[in-house]
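hey team, just a heads up i'm posting the complex here instead of the shared drive bc the drive is being weird again. everything in one block, sequence lines first with there labels, then the predicted structure for the whole assembly after. its two chains so it's a bit long, scroll down
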Amino acid sequence: MSIDIQTLIPLFVAIPLGMSLLIQLVARSRHMLSEVLTIITMLVLMLMSCYAIGDNGIYHLGGWPTPVGIDMRLDALATLLLLAVNIVGVAVSLYSVDYMRRFTARSHFYSLFLLMVTGMNGVILAGDLFNLYVFLEVAAIASYSLVAFGCAHEELEASFKYIVLGTLSSALILTGVALVYGITGTLNMAHIAARITETGMNTPLLLAFGLFICGFAFKSALVPFHAWLPDAHPAAPAPVSAMLSGVLIKAIGIYVLARLAFNVFGISDNELSMLRWLGLLSMVVGGFLAVGQKDIKRLFAYSSISQVGFMVLGLGLGTPLGLVGGLYHLVNHALFKPLLFLNAGAVEYATGTRNLKKLGGLNRKLPVTAATSMVGSMSIAGIPPFNGFWSKLIIVLACIESGYYGFALAAVLVSIVTLAYQLKVQRMAFFASLPEALKDVRREPPMMALAMILLAIGCITLSFAVLTGLRDPWLIGAAQQTLTAGVFGG
Amino acid sequence: MIYSLCLLLILIGLYGVVVSRQTLKIVISLLIMNHGVHLLLLLIGYREGGNPPIVDPGSLISEFANGAVDPLPQALVLTSIVIGLGVLALMVALCVRLYERYGTFDITEIRRLRG
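-- predicted structure starts here --
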């Protein structure tokens, strides 16, 4: 049986959106039903994104042709992001079944979760700037409310900080959209790219591009714009932290940055150097701030900033090798960072604390968490057989290839810092002697264990993606797609 | 130049966000900033002495396109205002919850998160 890819494209947005409303209609007080519906939705979305590998397509909304109607575009880069979002979504929705037991109003959680997935899938598939902005806001509003879901002091404070900075960055992005529309007279990204290659960059376009870089650097928490992330990501419930750190900052931050920079504006070397420096700054500052943290989730949040720096550094090189490295690291990070956040959530679920000083010796009490977090830590620190090693190696090699030895050295040093803080987590949480207060900790519930095992298997599987045959269909295509300036879509 | 007035409105909003200490004042400043952006977007579609963008069955499309204002920015602004309303409702709800927890609107006293 073959399904036309064109008919699948709108379903990536329509299915989660419809389901989030359906859950409110039929499963408002039946938690079991809302859990089952969410898991089924995410499984369907995952299968659909696997089916989309290697396909290109444009969907015209309502059958209107391109200059009049709204486009949704699927290409290699979009498929890569769809895979990341929906695979992590499956693991997270499985994990939520046990983890969210302690919260009230769980059906609201699942609705908001699916709305966030809707927004991310929409951003990835949007063919014009304004729809991109609308879907970005859908994902952002859902994430603001999910951060505040616990309604305790810290959650509300973090969410307020997040919403103020998020709204500010959205205003910057909307100003950019307005300027681009005023200059080029179109919102369709392919048409904008064509106009820009005709006329070349001028000052107002550069201003718009600058606004976009600021706005999306806020969304992806690059260093001068990162203040909200270390508060917002730890405050959310663990499955949401996994989603936010794992895919949200990439789907509505890095992805759009790469798309606009390479495919729409046709980036020049001056602007690339700005991306490189932003990447370097995030990498170094995030890494060093992570070392000093005592809260396990806050540590992982700072580590996200650092790892995002690696990706932006890879993209900022602008060479094929750099892009492959950046995108590979993006996918890897989308697997091991959710895994680590789910581990942190399991630790918090079992012991009631996230403070590393109060933890210890959990590898006997929580064997699955300890084993999978070892996989996650080794991956993120770049220990050879695991996936993080290969992507960091490619980024370092790409730096050397382009002649940026300083950047390569910084990347290697930050990798060592990464290893340092991951070992700190391992030692303080899982290996030291068990404190008296944690003597009667019970094992992690089965669904949480299942989700963590799935992500750990994903980490190990992805390390084979360096082999030629396995990486071609999804990774290299995406990098080529990104490099093809001015053209995108099927 | 009328565009600079939009810029002024955006900057007033930004100034308010940076210097206010009350959560509700921050929300209002963000609203002012957002409306500055909306005005900018609307002005892009404005044409002095333009016709309403409704095609008569008899008229030529090229003639119509030369005389009418651009209707697209208006549609965009409408969408954006609705989004802004959603964000506003959420922000005000957060302010109310913060007041319930901390007993204050002052952000210098709402600071448990650090590091």
